[in-house]
UniProtKB/TrEMBL annotation:
Obligatory cofactor(s): FAD
Alphabetic keyword roster: FAD, Flavoprotein, Oxidoreductase
Family to which the UniProt record says this protein belongs: Belongs to the FAD-binding oxidoreductase/transferase type 4 family.
Record's protein name: Glycolate oxidase subunit GlcD
GO BP term (any one): respiratory electron transport chain
Gene Ontology MF: a single term: oxidoreductase activity
Residue intervals of the FAD-binding PCMH-type domain: 36-215
Highest classification ranks of the organism: Bacteria, Pseudomonadati, Pseudomonadota, Gammaproteobacteria, Oceanospirillales
InterPro entries: FAD-bd_oxidored_4_C, FAD-bd_PCMH, FAD-bd_PCMH-like_sf, FAD-bd_PCMH_sub1, FAD-bd_PCMH_sub2, FAD-linked_Oxase-like_C, FAD-oxidored/transferase_4, Oxid_FAD_bind_N
Protein's organism: Pleionea mediterranea
One matching Pfam family: FAD-oxidase_C
Gene3D superfamilies with a match to the protein in the record: 3.30.465.10, 3.30.70.2190, 3.30.70.2740, Uridine Diphospho-n-acetylenolpyruvylglucosamine Reductase, domain 2 (3.30.43.10), Vanillyl-alcohol Oxidase, Chain A, domain 4 (1.10.45.10)
Length: 463
């Protein structure tokens, strides 16, 4: 049967684009979570939307499970093939259509690298604001399938807010052309939004019409040092009330030290601090600069900040950003168990204190790395695996503590997955963020779109 499948796929895409070697199935069968053993049947790499349709039709007829694959930069196991699935890689669908400067839109195939889209927008005097550490590797289709967020959400929102149209191949091989780039379209259910964040469980995203905007002007960065977690919220409140922020990020001293030990970057200042916030804003006038300095003086006088630095050039701004953006890279050689969690910004203070208490009590022997997009209520809690501990034992320990963390999040009306998706890692905890009735409806929607359960089965929801 496997030979027949390979031959059928080769007939669709050509022999060169069906991969079966152990190295290929290992590479394409896992994501950045590093928590699952890949076991893919094969990898098929279509070069056109028509080829995607033919592959999906064949898979549906023969009940072959499909795992859509983009840049595989996810951290929740959503792109992992662990049970003999066929990996449908979209990296050859990488064309960008001409930017429409009147509509301020661009049409991208699913395999376009996020950074490629950002550069194309910049080349045309426009801006794509969804930004995160993996932009050089992640692909647009995967960004949409997980509703990716990142460092600019406080100002520009999530991926969902920039998708004006989608082309999606459904489980029976049909091609849906959803919303067609319209800003206004009041004609019933907007199916586009079902596929955004669906993690490939309802269909294969093959193309998107994406909204662009004007570039920000004179972005300026401040890094401030804090002694206590409780200082984060008053600092955020002070700056948000006085400036139109484009980012408000958070990281611990332990996270900073990881970056400094792996990269040749200057420390922001000499004063010791347990925690740091990075603030970015458009510095459009002298009045804006004065307002920023006034806000800094206010939090300094109130004892919320111990020291700070403000960028004096674009180069310095990039160096300050690197202190935050290179955290994930700096711990990537280790194996982190990641909690990507969120609450409303007004609950950040109590959220931080509660989770930190749980972490100190339950993980006394583990190294904990905190960072996140705290301006929109999103924190990344990274528990690092000790070298002496086996992976299975480490994961089991982390899972045993998850209910304590997730119950706290549930009480605050938060989310167990702010931007990384659910995948395999969070699937069994979905009801901490979604009601029983919501999960039941999600299962029913899955059944309507994918009755044979071939679309990324086992991810997001357990049927």
């Amino acid at each position: 049967m496997t030979t027949e499948i390979i031959q059928a796929l080769e007939k669709i895409v050509g022999t060169a684009h069906v991969l079966t070697s152990k190295d290929d199935t290992h590479e394409y069968g896992q994501d950045w979570s590093k928590l699952f053993t890949p076991d893919a049947l094969a990898i098929v790499r279509p070069g056109t939307i028509d080829e995607v349709q033919l592959i999906v039709k064949y898979a549906n007829e023969h009940k072959i499970a499909l795992v859509p694959s983009g840049g595989r930069t996810g951290l929740s196991g959503g792109a992992c093939a662990t049970n003999g699935e066929l990996v449908l890689s979209l990296d050859r669908l990488n064309k960008i259509s001409k930017v429409n400067k009147v509509d301020q839109t661009v049409v991208c195939e699913a395999g376009v690298i996020t950074e490629q889209l950002q550069n194309t927008a910049e080349d045309n005097g426009l801006y794509y604001p969804v930004d995160f550490a993996s932009t050089g590797s992640s692909q647009i289709g995967g960004n949409i399938a997980t509703n990716a967020g990142g460092i600019k959400v406080i100002r520009w929102g999530m991926t969902r807010d920039w998708i004006l149209g989608l082309k999606v191949v459904t489980a029976n091989g049909d091609l849906l052309n959803l919303n067609q780039g319209l800003i206004k379209n009041a004609t019933g259910y907007d199916l586009r939004h079902l596929f955004i964040g669906s993690e490939g469980t309802l269909g294969i995203i093959v193309e998107a019409t994406i909204k662009l905007t004007r570039p920000p002007k004179d972005l300026t960065v401040m890094v401030l040092g804090l002694s206590e977690l409780s200082d984060v919220y008053p600092v955020m409140e002070t700056f948000q009330q006085q400036l139109n922020l484009t980012a408000f990020e958070f990281f611990s001293d332990k996270a900073l030290n990881k970056v400094l030990s792996h990269h040749d970057l200057p420390k922001p200042f000499d004063s010791p601090a347990e925690y740091y916030v990075l603030i970015e804003f458009e510095n459009e006038s002298e009045q804006t600069s004065e307002t920023a300095f006034s806000a800094f003086e206010q939090v300094l006088e109130n004892g919320h900040v111990v020291d700070g630095v403000i960028s004096q050039s674009e180069t310095q701004a990039q160096q300050l950003w690197a202190l935050r953006e290179r955290i994930s890279e700096s711990i990537s050689h280790e194996i982190p168990y990641k909690n990507d969690i969120s609450v409303t910004p007004s609950n950040v203070a109590s959220f931080l204190e509660s989770i930190n208490t749980i972490v100190k009590e339950k993980y006394p022997e583990f190294e904990i790395i905190w960072f996140g997009h705290i301006g929109d209520g999103n924190l990344h809690l990274n528990i690092l695996k000790p070298a002496c501990l086996e992976l299975d034992e480490f994961v089991a320990k982390c899972k045993s503590v998850n209910p304590n963390i997730f119950e706290t999040i549930q009480q605050l009306g938060g989310s167990i997955s702010a931007e990384h998706g659910v995948g395999l890692v969070k699937r069994d905890y979905l009801e901490y963020s979604r009601s029983h009735e919501e999960v039941l409806l999600m299962k029913q929607i899955k059944q309507v779109f994918d009755p044979n359960n071939i679309m990324n089965p086992g991810k997001l929801i357990a049927l």
